[in-house]
Amino acid sequence: MREALSILASATVLPPSATPSGNYRRRHRHSTTSTTTKPRPNHNPKQKPQFPASSPLLSSSRWANRQTLAYYTKLASKLADDGKFDDFLMIAESVVASGVNMSEFLALLESEHLARGIVRLLCDGKLDSLVATLFNGIQKLGVEPVGLFDEVAIESLKAECRRLLKCGELERLVSLIEIFAGFQFIIKELVEPSEFIKLCITKREPTAAIRYAHIFPHAEVLFCSIILEFGKKRDLGSALKAFEASEKILSSPNMHAYRTIIDVCGLCGDYLKSRTIYEGLLAENITPNIYVFNSLMNVNSHDLSYTLDIYKKMETLGMMSDITSHNILLKSCCLAAKVELAQDTYKQIRKLESKGVLKLDDFTYSTIIKVFADAKMWKHALEIREDMLLSGIIPNTITWSSLISACANAGLVEKAIILFDEMLQADAQPNTQCFNTLLHACVEVCQFDRAFRLFQCWKERGSQQTISGDKLNRAYNEAVDQMSEMGVPLRLCSHLTMRVPYRPTTSTYNIMMKACGTDYYRAKDLIDEMKTFNLTPNHISWSILIDVCGGSGNVLGALQILASMRESGIQPDVIAYTTAIKICVKQKKPKLAFKLFAEMKKYQIKPNMVTYNTILRARSIDGSLLGLQQCLAIYQQMRKAGYKPNDYHLKQLIEDWCEGVLQTERRSERQFASHITDFGRQSLLLEKVAEYLQDSNAESLFIDLRGLTKVEARIVVLAVIRKIKEKYVAGKSIKDDLSIILEQQRHGDRASRDESGVGEAVIRLLKHDLALEVIEAGSRTGSDRDNKGSPTNSSLNFEVDEKGSLAETSESPTRRPIILQRLKVTRKSLHQWLHRKTVSSKR
DNA sequence: ATAGGGTTAG
């Protein structure tokens, strides 16, 4: 046979234009090869026979010779039988290249020869366009596939697919599947759809998954599972691609797919996307079904108003809401902590039940119980249990768990434990979350010892390891003693003797670490103990450890833990940093607190409201102006970050500043001057403060508060008073009264009068906080000479100065009367105050 | 085919 081939190779002559790299190959790449399939390199090109031009043997006319054709057909068959597929392919190539009708050649080959040849070549990775061409040729011939692929061929294909699946070679697997896509019976034998989809998901190939799923009947179900699986992997992008691909394949919009992608939006935390998808449906004039509506409500359940809107939309569409819709409404109320609305909703559902429209289920009861549990309304929660029992619904683990947390959240540890006991007696299986709730309840009321006893008891009774009877009894006796001390009857202690499997989780350990109070070593031991249950500390564990360590007074230790956290591969988050900052502030280490604050920003961790409020508590702990200035800068950042500063902390900040005004010694002057320029540019407030504190402005006793909020105004006023005090202490006397300009107010527009409250706040500050004498005055400018609507305090001795700030106001294009309200603190009053303070601080 | 419970910083 080799000889025959070599004769063929040497004797054949073909024009160069007809070489195998010609049209067949190229055309084929565009038609059958999938996008995920890169064309495979051909088998070694060196082995390819070179066909010389104008071969007499292979010319079309000669091929017409049936005898010759039959000979090569036979030769090819033999090669396939012998497993010499490369050579087989070579024959086929020359047949194809010669431009002879291939159908005739293929028809003459016995089908199993061909099939095995093709399958073998495919399995060897020779997903060559010629192989595909041959294969296509068979399909076009209409050869019966059942007859074409015998068991041996299919078996080898299956083996190859299994191998590819195992090795995760999705690309080649897809190529093979693409080729056999026309033969459904083969495809179904090749790969288990769930296995294939699993591989597509790990490889993030949503379109491949959908294309494969499409081969099967009931493809929609497979599409949905693909979308959902991507969602579970938090890969919304791929899920959306899969969804869009399924949309293209399916002729009509599939509600199941829609609800699935909406659920996935929720899973991935992109609830806005779920709204877009829903709006897309409406835009297409398609009415979603109940599942789509319920899923949409559920995904958006943290937004009560949106959920209610969707519910109303369902009503206007005349869609019958079911118990799930109502349960989700309840859940939404629960998340929004709207107890009354939840109660109304519950009553509404009960009414519908009495009409026979719906039947309340375990979800309904558990959810309303949770509403009351969260609101610490434990009695109401227990009442719901009565409703539930009357309606014949048996409480399940979740219901019991919610009931227990109702008592736990209200701080009723005894009641919670008794409920837990009832749960055991009712043969409900408690799970770790129930145990955790109880432990947490103990921790919340600082019964740390009790938490440890329960934990120990459950661990010993519930672990698979054999515990010595002594140890077990000791734990039991101790726990019973404690219960009886608390007045709990022994019959209610079955939770101590139960033998349910107990597996603590990381949460359990986190709760127990909180029960360590400030005993750092005990907490550290717990972290080590976690390993015996194959648990690893999470962000929360580390944060608690920082808190415990810092709470014991060991600030540096706490900072060290923060570093270890990073070293152990868990990047400290905003909470870990905030906890560490809290420790520094508590232990009066403001510098460390500010250092951590700078560090977290270096790591691109955005401070949140809690962080800002915590760091602001570091204000002026050392009484230095620097600390105060840092706090002011942080306050400013907080506003820039979009957080509304907490008035309470702000008030504290300003009070501290006042304190500074009263107590600052000469030494502050230098510090003060060096920091003015730093924050001069940061904001309007800081600019103002800086402006008035500049030495060039030293002689001016004038404050323009226009454009400032009342809080900012207070800060500016205090800054100026501080300056006055600094100057006074330095030996410079006050040369003039202090003038303050307040916001412009349009004459007659009562509604806008001191809307910002600046005037009131400043007057209160000066008069009340600083005990200064304040003269209030108003002035009219513009053309209006009418005396109507004169300022509130016109009687006082205020004079309009013609230059300075008033020049600015006359720039205003309006000719309407404008009233500038002014305040004045007399030189005399300031002097008295300074004298008073200087004397008192010397004492 | 839908939903529910426990743990961290002020």
UniProtKB/TrEMBL annotation:
PPR repeats: 361-395, 396-430, 431-465, 538-572, 573-607, 608-645
Highest rank taxon of the organism: Eukaryota
Tagged with keyword Amino-acid biosynthesis: no
Positions of transmembrane segments: none
Keyword Repeat: yes
Pfam families: PPR, PPR_2, PPR_3
Region Disordered, residue ranges: 16-58, 777-813
Listed InterPro entries: PPR/CCM1_RNA-binding, PPR_rpt, TPR-like_helical_dom_sf
PROSITE patterns: PPR
Keywords, ordered alphabetically: Repeat
NCBIfam families hit by this protein: PPR
Protein's recorded name: Pentatricopeptide repeat-containing protein, chloroplastic-like isoform X2
Native organism: Salvia divinorum
